[in-house]
Each structure stands twice: as structure tokens, then as C-alpha cells.
Amino acid sequence: MNEELEEKTGRLVELLERENIGAVLLNSQHNFAWLTGGGSNGIDASRENGAASLLVRRDGRRFVVANNIEMPRMILEEASAEILGAFFEPVEYSWQDEKTNGSFVIEKAKQLLETGAVIATDIPIDPAAPVIENKIAACRYRLTSHEIDRYRLLGRDAGTAVRRVIGKLDQGETELEIAEKMRHELALGGMASVVTLVAADERISRFRHPLPTANRWKKTLLLVTCAKRGGLIVSLSRMVRAGSVPDELKIKTEAAAYINACLLDATKPGTTGAELYAVAAKAYSDKGFADEINRHHQGGAAGYKTREWVAHPRSAEVVQPGQAFAWNPTITGTKIEETYITAVDGAEGADGVEVITASPDFPQIASTVQGREYFSPGILSL
Predict the structure, then answer these.
(1) What 3-state DSSP class applies to 272?
(2) Is pTM beyond 0.85 here?
């Protein structure tokens, strides 16, 4: 883990040097998880900010900054306690001081810097501290080898958990009941479903983000989760049908799979988000569903957020080696979604993407793009 921490610290130090900033204070839950290799500073799930902060100086020194309520637990009990205790210097203060003065944490952090040095943050904390989350995000994009290993395990476990849920479905259940089954199954594997969508029958066609309701499943079912563990998040969707799959639904799903395959074929280091969007738009048009791209985004880069960035006509973001992506092409009534990792520089066969969320014993649709075959999840007929 020390190797991973040092690599990430090095990325932040390079950023600080480039921007002429003395230090950066990381308080958001996703950045805390990223730098600590899966730790959590979260208590209140309704907030983006956490209960402790990490300070990284331009000289590479690291600090964990927290009040006297949270510091003991952070050092002794938190999942990243070994990392925090060994590689971060603790800076503790009283909770009364924090509540009395909204700028107290920034002022405390400034005491660790040279006079006049600029301190930046990842979320708005103090008007005097510039927010550089967009630049920090770029430091997260390329996964370390340790992160890739954890991501693969997360993807495997999430895909397996959703498949187990499907095996326990009962026709006539409500979307709410099915959603609860999915959350429970994921929780058994240490995962939290940070996005849970379930649509039965006509609601699949009506809404692209169908929050579960009391609607009862009769024939067709869509299950969607964004599963989180150790800060990393994978996304996947599954279509299920009670009985045979109608021809129209089959045609639409095969078209969505082709669009997914075109995106996978184009997801290569150096490609921009705008270029990926153009690939998707052409694929929709080629399959006779040109207007469908206007009804929902197609996905994009993933990692410590459900989407780090989304492909759109003006996206200047660039695909990195060893970066996670979750594509989700949709055509009214159906959806394809998996999470992938691009090949790492120097890796054998480093010219494609690796799916990490495939579900066991789930039907696959093969699509050929430029002589290469790609597989997308189909529709499971029960």
C-alpha cells in the first residue's frame, strides 16, 4: 500500500508544483477514499464532505486533520487506520473551535505551511482557498495496479451479487421489494448500492432513471446498480424477461449492444470524450435509432464517482491507460451497462478493454466492430 500512497502523493505534488500551490486539503469522501486506498471519512451520507481531512504539502509531507471526536477512531479503527497511523501526521483540534469558527480548519492547516503559501481545497470550505477539484480529479483517473486489483474484485462481486438477486426473483414482486433484495445482496459482499434503479414493464420505456416504486413486475424487468466498496464504484444493468423475449425488444437490445461495442472499440488512450460521443452517435444512426442518443447520456469515465466525466459533443477529456469506464447506451425499453478498465501501458495485449462486472451464467450478445468481437449482457429469459 505504501507504493500506492507514494504514487498518488507524487501526482498531487506535481499538481501543486505546476499550480504554484503550497498544499491541498482533501475533505470530500471520494478523495479521502482515493488517497488512503479505500478508507472512509464519511459519517453523514447526505454530505459530500467528510469528518476528517488529509493535507498534502508540496514537499510531500502528509497530515490527517480532525477534531478530537473523530481522530481516535480514524487512527485506531478506520479501514485506513494502518495507512493513517503510519504515513500521515495527526493534527487534532477541539470540536468547539471548529463549530465556533467556520474557517478554523483552513487556519489550522495554514499553520503547517510557510507564511503566505497558498492552500487549495477539493470542495468549497473557505473563500480564501481556491477549489481545484477538477485538477485533483485528473490525478485519480489512471488507476494504480493495486486499485485495478481491488476494482476487478469489486466488479466480480457486484456482477455475481446481481445475478444471485435475479435467481431469487418472484414474478409479481414490487420494484421496491426487488430493490431491497439487491441492496441486501450487495451488502453481504461489503458493497453499498449508491444508485439503485428498478423498472418493471412499461416504466422501462417511460423513464431513463426509474427509481423503484410499488409497481409490480409482470413481464420485463430492468435492474441497475452502482455498487461501491472501498471508495471505488462499478455500474451495471441487467434486463430480465418472464417468458420469451419479444422480437422488438430483442432487436433494440442487439442494437444497444452494437453501440456499446463501438464505444468499447473506440475507448483507447488518447481518444477524447467528444470523439467517443461521435462514435456513439454514428452507431445509433447506423442502427436506425439516431434520436435515442438525445434521450440519455452514454456514460463515461468511472472510479471514485459513478462517472468521473461523461462523453458529450464538447468533451475535451482524454482516455488514459488503466482507466475505468462505464458505458450505458439505451434505446427506449432496453439498456446495456457494464464497467470496464482500459489496458495499461506495456501490458500484454494492451489494446483493448477488460469487462469487470460480467454476471455468471448471463446471456451475452456478440457484436463485431472492425473485425473484433465484443460482448454485452443480453436479456435473461426466466
Answers:
(1) strand
(2) yes
